[in-house]
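From the methods appendix. Each design record in this collection lists the discretized structure first, followed by the designed amino acid sequence. Records were kept in a plain field format so they could be parsed without special tools. The example shown here is representative of the layout used throughout.

RECORD:
C-ALPHA CELLS (471 positions):
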C-alpha cells in the first residue's frame, strides 16, 4: 500500500487532527500514519496469537481485550537461550509477549528465532527508522503491564541502576512505569561482586523485583555457585504473580498494623518525657503498604507529619495508650513496630503542674518500666500476627544487639539501624538498615527512608507469598 487518501472527514475532525499533529510536532500526514500504526499494533497485541512454528499446541490461541502484556528484554548472556523457552511459558499462560534484544543478546539468541516464537517482530535498535519515527521506544515502554529482563546481566543491571539510556533496552527501562522483574544471570564472582550487589540493592529499592539467580553449575567449565538464571517456569510464575498483583497490589487483602513516632510520657499535665523520633520511617512504611493494596492501620505518637492518605490513623500519646490501640486493632497479618516507645514512664505523674518552690528540694522523678508492645504482641498465644517485625535503634554493636533483641522479644524480623548522632538517622530522611532474621543477616545500602519502606514491603509480600497464607 503506497499511500492512503482519506476523504469526507468533517471539519471538526480535521481541526482535531491538525491540532494533534501540531502539538506532536508532526505533519498531518505523519500524524495519521501514527494513528493507524498505533491501531494496528494494538490489534496485533490483542489479536489471536498464531500457532508458533515450534508447534506449541498447548498455547492458548485466543487473546482477549484484557490480555496481560509482558515486554521481555533479553540481555547478553549465555542464559539468553533459555528465553526461547520462557517465551513459550509466558504464552502458555495467555500472556502476550513482545521482545527487545540488546546488541550483546543477539550473539546468543537470534532475532529470527525469538520473533518466530513470539509470533511478531522483535525490537533491537533505538534508532530504528521503522519503529522510531514516532518515538516507538516510548510506546514499547508504555504498552506493557510488566517488563521482564532475562538474563539480567551485570552490565545491564549497572546501566539500569545508574539510569543509562544509550540503547533501546535501557531507554525503554528508563521510560517505563510498569513493574520490572529481573532474572539475573552471571558468573558467581560477578554476582558476589560488591558493585553488582550495590546495583542490585539500588534496583530493588527503586521497586524492581528479582527472581533468582539460582545456585548450580555454570556454563563455564567447572564453575559452580550462585549465578544461574532462574528456570523459565520460575520466571513465568513470577511474571504471572506480578501481573496479578499489579492490578490489586501485592498486599491486597492483608491487614497491616504499623506503630510510628515517639511516645510522650507525662510528668504532669504540661510536661512530658519524649525522644527525637520523627515518625518519618513508620509513616513512610504505612504509605508504602497502602500503595501495595494493604489494609493499613497506623498507630502513631505525636509527630509533625501529615497522615498518609488511605490509612486508618489512630493517634496516641503514651506507650500504654499505644499498646491498647495495638491490641484493639488485632487480628492483623503483619505488625511492624517502628515507634520509638519510651522505655520508662514517670511513676506518679502529677495531676497538677509541679510548682517550683524556692527553698525546697528539686523534685525527683521515679520511673517505672513501660510495657514492651513488640514483645507483648510477638509473645501472644492467640491472634499473633503471621509476621511481627521490630526495629532496633542502636548506637553500637548494631547487629549483635539486634540478634539478641530478636531472640528476647520473640519477633520474626528486626530492622537494625545505627542512630548515633553522626548517622543523622533520627529526624533525617535516610536510613541504613540491617535486616536480621533468625536464619540470615542482610545489610541494605544507605538509602532514603522511602526506599527502605519499599524494600521492606517487597520482603513482606515475598514472605507472605512463601507462607502461602490465605488472605
Ligand atoms: O528495646 P528497644 O526499644 O530497642 O526495641 C525496639 C523495638 O521494640 C522497636 O520495634 C520498638 O517499636 C519496640 N518497642 C515496643 N515497646 C517498647 C519498647 C520498644 O514496641 N516499650
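DESIGN:
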Amino acid at each position: 500500500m503506497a499511500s492512503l487518501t482519506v476523504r469526507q472527514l468533517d471539519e471538526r475532525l480535521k481541526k482535531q487532527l491538525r491540532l494533534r499533529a501540531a502539538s506532536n510536532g508532526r505533519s498531518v500526514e505523519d500524524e495519521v500514519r501514527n494513528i493507524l500504526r498505533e491501531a494496528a499494533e494494538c490489534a496485533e497485541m490483542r489479536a489471536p496469537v498464531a500457532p508458533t512454528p515450534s508447534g506449541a499446541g498447548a498455547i492458548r490461541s485466543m487473546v482477549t481485550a484484557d490480555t496481560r502484556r509482558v515486554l521481555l528484554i533479553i540481555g547478553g548472556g549465555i542464559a539468553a537461550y533459555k528465553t526461547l523457552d520462557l517465551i513459550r511459558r509466558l504464552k502458555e499462560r495467555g500472556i502476550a509477549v513482545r521482545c527487545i534484544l540488546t546488541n550483546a543478546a543477539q550473539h546468543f539468541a537470534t532475532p529470527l528465532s525469538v520473533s518466530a516464537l513470539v509470533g511478531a517482530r522483535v525490537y533491537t535498535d533505538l534508532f530504528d527508522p521503522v519503529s522510531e519515527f514516532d518515538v516507538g521506544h516510548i510506546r514499547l515502554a508504555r504498552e506493557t503491564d510488566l517488563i521482564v529482563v532475562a538474563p539480567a546481566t551485570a552490565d545491564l543491571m549497572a546501566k539500569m541502576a545508574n539510569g543509562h539510556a544509550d540503547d533501546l533496552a535501557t531507554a525503554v527501562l528508563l521510560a517505563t512505569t510498569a513493574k520490572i522483574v529481573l532474572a539475573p544471570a552471571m558468573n558467581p564472582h560477578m554476582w558476589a561482586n560488591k558493585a553488582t550487589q550495590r546495583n542490585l540493592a539500588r534496583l530493588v529499592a527503586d521497586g524492581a523485583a528479582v527472581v533468582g539467580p539460582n545456585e548450580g553449575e555454570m556454563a563455564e567449565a567447572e564453575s559452580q555457585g550462585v549465578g544461574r538464571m532462574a528456570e523459565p517456569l520460575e520466571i513465568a510464575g513470577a511474571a504471572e504473580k506480578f501481573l496479578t498483583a499489579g492490578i490489586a497490589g501485592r498486599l491486597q487483602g492483608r491487614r497491616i498494623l504499623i506503630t510510628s513516632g515517639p511516645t510522650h510520657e507525662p510528668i504532669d499535665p504540661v510536661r512530658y518525657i519524649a525522644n527525637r523520633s520523627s515518625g518519618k520511617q513508620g509513616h513512610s512504611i504505612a504509605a508504602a503498604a497502602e500503595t501495595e493494596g494493604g489494609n493499613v492501620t497506623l498507630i502513631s505518637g505525636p509527630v509533625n507529619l501529615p497522615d498518609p492518605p488511605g490509612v486508618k490513623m489512630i493517634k496516641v500519646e503514651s506507650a500504654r495508650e499505644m499498646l491498647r490501640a495495638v491490641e484493639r486493632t488485632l487480628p492483623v497479618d503483619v505488625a511492624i513496630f517502628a515507634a520509638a516507645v519510651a522505655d520508662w514512664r514517670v511513676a506518679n505523674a502529677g495531676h497538677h503542674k509541679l510548682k517550683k518552690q524556692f527553698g525546697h528540694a528539686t523534685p525527683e522523678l521515679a520511673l517505672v518500666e513501660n510495657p514492651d508492645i513488640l514483645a507483648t504482641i510477638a509473645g501472644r498465644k492467640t491472634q499473633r500476627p503471621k509476621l511481627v517485625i521490630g526495629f532496633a535503634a542502636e548506637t553500637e554493636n548494631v547487629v549483635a544487639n539486634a540478634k539478641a533483641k530478636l531472640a528476647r522479644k520473640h519477633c520474626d524480623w528486626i530492622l537494625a539501624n545505627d542512630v548515633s548522632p553522626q548517622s543523622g538517622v533520627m529526624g533525617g530522611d535516610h536510613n541504613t538498615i540491617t535486616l536480621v532474621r533468625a536464619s540470615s543477616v542482610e545489610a541494605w545500602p544507605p538509602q532514603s527512608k522511602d526506599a527502605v519502606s519499599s524494600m521492606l514491603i517487597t520482603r513482606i509480600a515475598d514472605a507472605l507469598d512463601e507462607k502461602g497464607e490465605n488472605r
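APPENDIX NOTE: Residues 259, 319, 337, 339, 341, 343, 370, 372-374, 390-393, 405 surround cytidine-5'-monophosphate (CB under 6 Å).
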